[in-house]
Amino acid sequence: MSNALVSIMMPAYNAENYISPAIESVLAQSCPYWELIIVNDGSTDRTVEIAGSYKDPRIYIVNQSNQGESVARNTALEHSRGEFVAFLDADDLFQPDHLKVTVNFLNSHSGFDAVYTDGFYIDGEGKQLSPLSARRRGPFEGWIYEEVVRASDVIGPPGCILLRIKPVFDEALRFDPVIIIGPDWDFVLRYSENHPFGYIRDRTYLYRVHQRNITKTTAGSKRAISLATCRTKAIKTQKFGSCSAEVRYKVFYDLLISHLSEMPDRQAAAIGWQEFQNLPQEMRARLLRLMAGKAIFTGGDEFLIQSWLRSSLKLNRSDWRALLLRAAYPISPAFCRKILSVKGSFVEEEAPLSALDG
User: Fold this and answer.
1) Which of 224, 158, 223, 222 minimizes the C-alpha distance to 189?
2) Phi then psi dihedrals of residue 296, to 5 deg
3) pLDDT digits (tens, 9 = 90+) for 117-129
4) Distances from the Cα of 109 to the Cαs of 115, 119, 148, 153, 332, in angstroms?
């Protein structure tokens, strides 16, 4: 094993209940070549006191006002001096060999710039639950960009990942402060656009599930905006057009139907993007019909509903669902809502794509 330094970022906000075992899991690493950068994001509890009780010179505490997870991670990056960067949330744990196996992998596989492992979900008391891989697709190796674009359930959580840090600085990659849910997904997606990932089956990370996880405390509207931003940024990446039509369709479905259904102005803007226009004609027609169907069901804007149905039929005149909605909606929106409430009749059932509930 080389003595290459690993910079471990740990954002911490009111983490007094769990930060001590998190720090101790770093101290227990079989690889001694690390620095732990704890960014205290304006905690009002004993987080700083507990973190400061550890006198190991490899542990650094950076204090800032409360600005959110993304800003805290960016602050940690600014203080990182390592060849590699690792992620550890203040309520999670590394297994003792996490750094050793991931660093060894990248040292012996020069064709990869990142690697991720398996692990376990644990409860608030630390009891192991199911493996992380039980809720993932894959595993995938190499150029995994298209799979990460498709959904976040490839790698998560980010604590499983070790990255070479040079591309982060060369490409000015940072965590987006606008994104509350999914900043890690956005960051990994953009890293994966130009850098291949390896995979290790070892279960080296313990992800704690409890009621204060950010995915459980973030309101629905903020969640939708964050995930819509993740989707928008994915669509605007340089290589999005190289993804299969199926993946591009699913990303637009996730954006337009799952996350923007209560933001019709943003829906209207998105269907004007060139990336939407590049979808196959039948896929565009289906998305427009699904947008109209959901808007009918939720009592949306009549003008937009009529417009989306007309556009859908212009692209695919043989879609009987769009034909029926187009004919019935002006007569009885209530009847349309009734038939739309029958599962599978007019609105296709789609698997969730975001998988960020942890």
Assistant:
1) 158
2) -60, -45
3) 999 999 989 899 9
4) 10, 21, 21, 24, 63
